[in-house]
Amino acid sequence: MRVASTSTGAPNPVGVENHQIRRAPVPRQRPLTPRSFPKRHYVCVHGVELDQFGDVVDARLRAWNLAYEELRTKPVAMHQSVRDTYFAPEIAIDFVSRAWRAGSAQQVFELTPATRDRYRPDGAVAYFNVLWQRVGDYVVEVGNDLTEVRMLQMQLKDHESASATAMQARIVAQERERIARDLHDSVIQQLFASVLLLNSLAGNSSSPDCAQATQRVAETLSQVITEIRECILHVRETIPSSLEMELRDVVGFLVGATATRFVVDIADDVRCDGEIRSNIRAVVRESATNAVKHGHAENITISVVRSGYHVIVYIADDGVGMPDEPSASSGLSNLRGRARSPRRVNDREAA
């Protein structure tokens, strides 16, 4: 915990003269203890610097809790300038200015590998909802970690997608059954009646040429009947596979937040129902996140192939690899659980 007791001199913002700066006084306040806020939920207090027109030109740190200190990669010190220490300082100053004028402002801030020189995210990507609140002559910054909430939202989206896929499969199966029934009960019967009629005409015809032509037509129709019956018996589900699109959506948040490049390759003979698709998405999300978070991978290849009655997911990357003793939080236990359960996707660990 740090609390300012006096105001010290500090470099002026660029283009602002000494007589143009007014620093707010430091109030008496209780220290902010780490127990006051949950871990990963930080709070800090900024003293605001205004120019001669009353516009915010900078803000300097006056107090903070332990979570804020742990989030920053560089040492935290009293009177640190937002303009000098924050990632995208102009954006931060803009939110300070909004809070100063309107009383409060809300910001959603993502911590990614691009911000690692300033912040220390607990994972590949972290999402914070930041409240900038004016309190007297100060602006308080409160950051709430929303990473778990965002992950839960993505999982919910996966479940909704799996339910929609299952419903679509049921509708298509019902329609296929209706078409097969109509073909058998109506079309085949009519064709068969036509074959009988043609055979009868061929047998009663006095012209050999006409009888021969009629017989050829009857044989052709018989062949059509055979082919239709084979289609009914061996018809396959032909729903266009959108698994590649689903997996690209799964890794989309990593593509947008990191410099990692992804290649997704789905074999043509892969057919999955909603349950298998849901497990493949979960495996790919967990594995890709681990590759970026723990392995610092820059290139990841995701391949899905079929081997007999099994669907195999291969994930290869150019990261540093798994540690000798991976922690329980790596998610490997969840991946193995999905792979070994009935009707679940198999996972293979690439060397």
UniProtKB/TrEMBL annotation:
Under InterPro entries, the record lists: HATPase_C_sf (IPR036890), HATPase_dom (IPR003594), Sensor_HK_TwoCompSys (IPR050482), Sig_transdc_His_kin_sub3_dim/P (IPR011712)
Q: Indicate the segments forming the Histidine kinase/HSP90-like ATPase domain, all copies.
A: 279-328
User: Which Pfam families does this UniProt record tie to the protein?
Assistant: HATPase_c, HisKA_3
GO MF, one term, reads:
phosphorelay sensor kinase activity
Q: List where Polar residues composition bias occurs.
A: 1-10
**Keywords, comma-separated and alphabetical:** Kinase, Transferase
- The name on file for this protein is Unannotated protein
